[in-house]
Design goal:
By secondary structure, this protein is an all-alpha fold. The protein is built from 19 helices and no strands. The protein folds into three domains: 195 residues, Growth Hormone, Chain: A; 56 residues; 208 residues, MFS general substrate transporter like domains (Growth Hormone, Chain: A, Up-down Bundle), CATH 1.20.1250. The N terminus is likely disordered. Belongs to the major facilitator superfamily. EmrB family.
Length: 509
Amino acid sequence: MENVNTNHARPPYGILAILMIGAFIAMLNETLLNVALPSIMKDLDVGASTVQWLSTGYMLVNGIMIPATAFLIQRYSVRGLFLTAISLFTVGTFLAGFSTVFPVLLVARLIQASGSAIMMPLLMNVMLTSFPPEKRGGAMGLFGLIFIFAPAVGPTLSGWMLEHFDWRMLFHFVSPIAVIVLLIGIFLLKDKKEKVEISLDALSLVLSSLGFGGLLYGFSSAGDKGWDSSLVYGTIIVGAISLILFILRQFKLEKPMLEFRIYKYPMFALSSAISVVISMAMFSAMLLLPIYVQTIRGISPMKSGLMMLPGAILMGIMSPITGKLFDKFGGRILAIIGLSITIVTSYFFSKLALDTSYSHLILLYSARMFGMSMVMMPVMTNGLNQLPARYYPHGTAMNSTLQQVSGAIGSALLVTIMTNRTKTHAADLGAAAMKHLTEQPTPALLADMKQQIAMKAMLEGINDSFVVSVGIASIALILAFFIKRAKQADDPNEVKSTEQKVVNKLAEN
């Protein structure tokens, strides 16, 4: 993509503001529906495995679309792409809000996903091309505000709405905002971009869809269906093989759909590795804490969402501050401090009890979010800063795709550990309880014992999963010590072009 503002004299704040609002509602929408799934099951008379497709399908479309955004960003203008994305999102939102049967709701959700998948890579790419590296941290801090704050506040807002309105109100709430953003984009969004004649390789698109889609579906289904399911390991195998073929094909193409040569830049490669590990660790609290709070403690979804709200607000406040600190001090010190806080708080989460206080959970979760706010955006920005400008679309698409895949892998891993350890603890606790019985228990006592053992076993399973997340975050901390402040590398094509001009000049003389 041609730079939106190649000389960095004045960033296009109007374009950025419109893109940010669009990206915010897209990210907010992604988590709004999770809390509403039980209500949708009851209202539309579908089972848990069916209703889960509203989340799984959304994620699959993202996994298929995001790798193609590198091509789309280079081929089309910011205006054209954004208006297409927000139009798809708006149509999907309206359709979902008036759906009365599940197939219509699912189709609407997939249309939404096709639009939202384009918005985040597009926004990140515009920010990279609009600000020089020394000012990019502050700008990316605002991006972090959307990237982290919107999904974090979603469950709280959703919980409040579901207590007062029908689940369709979640879509009716977003619809007018989406329409306003679309109209603003139509009348105010303008950008100049030379037409780039590149074509999309059809085989690359097929292999990418099978590769990333297969991995996402396989890992996201593992927690529910189990690792012994042929559907789980079958789709993971197909995904892995397709992904290998996709990567090999990209190296053969003159203009690849997704450029894997960006991994020859060490700071980008390191930032990708750290981001993958962080995404896996981050899901421990986002996934396991609601299970603990709602299933074991019996706290309502509304109070569960409110518990996470202070952490989300703190992270939102910290994102721009962290961006400014990144510009001044670089990414390494921020990542080390942030990951240390994340590891300590994750360790304390591994000590949850049946009577851990609500205020203790709020403080611990907020502290963990404070640590996380110092890691993700600085690490990602530092890696992207090393890439030549023409690789920005590929870098942003790669980061977004890897976060989707690593999030699915992290979720599957932690749910599997929790499930397996819960079974082990239940067997051990059951055997210990039977040893201490001096007489035959009554049916009522036996039922009460089973319930207590099940709760205690699940609690210990959750604690064990948090221990694993401590180990995962520790890997990221070790990698963070190798971070160096990145300087933009020379574009090999531009260097060759310059050398050729010198040779031609000498030949003329």
